[in-house]
Amino acid sequence: MNNFADVEVEELHSGLLKIRQRRRFLWLLILAYVPLMMLALAAADAQWVVVAAFAAWLLLLILAVALMALVRCPRCGHCFHMSGYLFRPVRSCFECGLHLNADKRA
Questions:
Q1: How far apart are CA 8 and CA 13, in angstroms?
Q2: Which residues, including other chains, have CB under 8 Å from residue 46's CB and lie 6 or more apart?
Q3: Spatial separation of the C-alpha atoms in residues 39 and 54, rounded to whole Å
Q4: How many angstroms separate the CA atoms of 96 and 73, rounded?
Q5: Beta bridge partners of 72
Q6: How far apart are CA 74 and CA 98, in angstroms?
Q7: Tens-digit pLDDT profile for residues 12-33
Q8: Which of 4, 29, 13, 19 lies closest to 96 in space, CA to CA?
């Protein structure tokens, strides 16, 4: 087992902040889907605008999931949200168990 005592508080905080920002971006992107489609449907040439808006949203979604899946745990260095080949966006590292808000706790 790795010695996790070598991780500094600043390094832990910046790593967990990056993970939280990527999670926030993914959730905001998911929540933006319905308003985006409503705006696209209200356009004059709605058919093409909807297709373009959906394609752009889908590409951003793929990017957001890839960035979130590949972010590393600041304590153990493994992918935070990956369990083998499975992407599971849970709130703690699968390898070392570091919680997403460990730097905010006492």
A1: 9
A2: 40
A3: 11
A4: 9
A5: 79
A6: 9
A7: 889 999 999 999 999 999 999 9
A8: 4
pTM over 0.85: no
DSSP string, the chain: ---GGG--HHHHHHHHHHHHHHHHHHHHHHHTHHHHHHHHHTSTTHHHHHHHHHHHHHHHHHHHHHHHHHPBPTTT-SBTTEETTEE---SB-TTT--BTTTTT--
| Among 37, 33, 30, 32, CA closest to 89 | 30
Spatial separation of the C-alpha atoms in residues 96 and 79, rounded to whole Å = 11
